Records
---
Amino acid sequence: MSAASTAESADFRGPLDITRAATVVLDAESTVIGWSPAAAELLGYGSADALGRPLAAFLTVRPAGGTLPAEASGAAGPGPGPPSLVGNEIHVARTRDGRELLVATATCPLPGAAGAGGPGTPDRILVAAEVEALLHWESRIALLQGLATQSPVGLAIYDTDLRLSWSNTAYEREMGQPLAAFRGKRAEELYGAGSFVTPGYPHTLAGVMRQVLDTGEPVLDLHFLGQPPSDPGRDHLWSCAYYRLEDAHGHALGVCEDAFDITDRYRVQERLTLLVEAGRRIGTALDVATTAEEIAEVAVEDFAATVRVDVTRAAVTGETAAVGSPADMSLLRVAERSAPGSGTPDPGGPVDTIDP
């Protein structure tokens, strides 16, 4: 897509914006006394052909067949109808070459006019645009509104100094406070203890965003591990995407962050992986001590920081003892393993160790 077409598609001025719409200046008798180039482009009449003629020569309430299309009837009649057309009047415009266009119009009275002026005195301004264009524009606005208020994906915009300038509702929930409370803060102030765990990328938020700003290349599905302010003390994992925001001339405005919390999904996947690994590695021998070692090896450190496996003496020696006797109740420790630096204390108890 070319830069020109990109700029065009990113133009969020509405079709009824006076800088884009077909604009007509009317006097108190609805005579055309002003005719914009956009009006000439829409209807095919130049200003010389339009000035001095009644508005009804160009806009009518009904088409030649006498029936409005279904979408226009729904928009103009009672009931919710297409939300984009609420507050706008629907007309049929006749073009110079005989075509009929369904258009939405809006009227703005001029200050101090109120029908008091005579013929030729500006009384109000009417703007018009094709209904189809208005519906298309409203769908884009609805998308933006949904991203800002309804999307489950956290969205944030950082300026070129990497200070947060805007966020959506999902991001505010994650922060546990309104945007006004953290606007202007740097990323590392919000998630100072977190880092990216995806290999091949900078570990810090600032490093990744600076890379995107400098290169213009977006990055997708980076995994960030940290603790949100709304849930301190508990690690979360996000899938993040970053892309540079630019104005219509290609100048960088900042970086947009999309972040979706995948903590629960990640933990489920970790458990499934652990179960698969356990099924592969545990039970390779019938020896109790070997099986206990396999359990400890699999469980540390993805499942536990320390694992100690104690079994009854009879399970190891094959000896049987009277139920409830000291011999029956005595335990042997057949395996023990701890993650480096875990420092988990032994709970103690009458446990002997098995002889190697």
---
Amino acid sequence: MKLLSKAQYLAERLYVWRLGLVFLGCYALGFGVYYLLQGPSVLYEVSLLLSVVLLGWVLLAWLTLLLFRHLPDWQPQQSWWQKLKQAAHKLWYQALLWGCLLLSIATLYLMAKALKALSSQLIG
């Protein structure tokens, strides 16, 4: 329970950073649109991919902040309705965390693929 309260305290302190996350997301989107207008090339593909990766990480950080800011109380409840609600909350948060993990793995895979394509074009 101590870890949960520390996480909630940290999320409340990091709440101000949401503006920074929004700025990073807009910057990444602008970066991708700028190179989209430049025309097709390897640099265009890599920059667009990196902007999508950055947007994915911004989404991941946003979801983490939301998760730790609005965690329900994990104490055992008395009524069956509250127990059902608690189980639904736990399932929802687990689905969010697994989705973020899959998003992280997918972005790392795409980033490695883009860097491989860039290095093969630079070498060959």
---
Amino acid sequence: MASGFLKGTLILTIAGFVVKAIGSINWILLSRILGGEGIGIYQMAFPIYLLLLQISSAGVPIAISILTAERLALHDFGGAKRVFNISFTMLTITGFIASLAMYFGADWLISSGLIAESRAYYSIIALAPAVFFVTWISCFRGYIQGYEMMTPTAVSQIVEQLLRVIVMLGAAAILLPYGLPAAAGGASLGAGVGAFGAFLVLLYYYYKLPKASSTGESYDGPRESAKEILSRLLTLSIPISLASIMLPLTANLDLLIVPRRLLDAGFPMNEVTELFGYLTGMAVPLINLATIITAALATSIVPAISHAYAKRDHEGIYDRTAGSMRLTFMATVPFTVLLYVLAAPTVTLIYNAPKAELATQITAFSIFFLGVHQVTTGILQGLNKPRIPVINMGIALVIKVILNWTLTAIPWLGIGGAAWATVADIGFAALLNLIYIKKYTGYFLDISLLWKNVVSAGVMGILIFLSYHYLTDILPMWANFILTGIEGLLLYVIIMVLLKGLNKNDGASMPLIGRFFR
């Protein structure tokens, strides 16, 4: 796999961790400023904000990335620019309408009862400008990613988060003397300022993109009309948007089913609430954190596959698919085992909730399946097959509902049943994606490589289990946890090298450190 492709993944991964870290610090500080009641007012406006973003721009960045990469693969720089211009015009209109709707509809949202908290008015109107600017940056990010350039996206994400946090904390603190509604509204202003800052960053990179005249390449083929480009943009973006909606839909179904079935199993209401929090509020966020690498990989694989697909480069498609899956194995299998073995200290140190161990151990298996699902979804989107992942997620969702209803009501399983349903859901969706990947690229699973990963991670798991328990009475929990985690990853790499699952070529292809292996 090309070093440039890996570099893009690494850059997005680092940005993802930085953004998460800044967000975590911000949440702690904002909670101290606003308190529980103020945070509640602040949060009231977000469902409407996210819904309007879904309507105005969801799925569009990936669609723009695909169309741009296709045009660039054919050296049609003018066609790529037309994709951007048409997309930008469309998103400007939809973003402007959505932003106005949120601003002028704030009173109606409260008076109609859709938002029960009247004090959320300032938060609603403060978020309205962010809707407009986010649609702009989604267009720029998609277009620049079509050039297989991930640094602009990464830099803009970090700048957006930094500005958002600075304004959020500053405005909340300044406006707090005027009451919680004003302070919550001030905090909401951060989203718009952050998005505008990201837009300026992307605008800078946009003007640095290579021009057709500087490449020496020309394109003499047919040119797509504005109507054709708009039609393809919608054809791609709507299924991608539907796929993003599936995740909150799944969460809402969990909310409807899991607590009810836990009650049917004989758990008291206070324990039901506690168990549900362990799964959805503690275990699942850890899974999302552990798959930051594959989320970045899924973003960078789309234009890479689209580029090869436009040129009918079947060998290139296969190589990119195989390379991305190879990285997926190495980014998910060891972390699956690490979280499973170290679930107890993880939930104790992070959440001070040792009872969340069971839910975390079971959902740890989702790390592998979610990583595979993310990357295979990106590959299928790059192959112009965005409907397939949506259909597969829908089928898997039906299976999850059945398992949630059945397993959660078994007393000895309880929340563990809901956790297994979550694993089955994402696992089945990933398997269906792989079947279609085999159909369209010829690649399925490299069983030999997967087996080497599993053996390496399995041996690592046994050794860190013994090490952690041996050091329990010697080191404090946090030191033992960090030391064991580092020890585990080093053991995994050593065993992979011994099994020839990693070699010199793998090291040489890595960005930043590759030159040391050549």
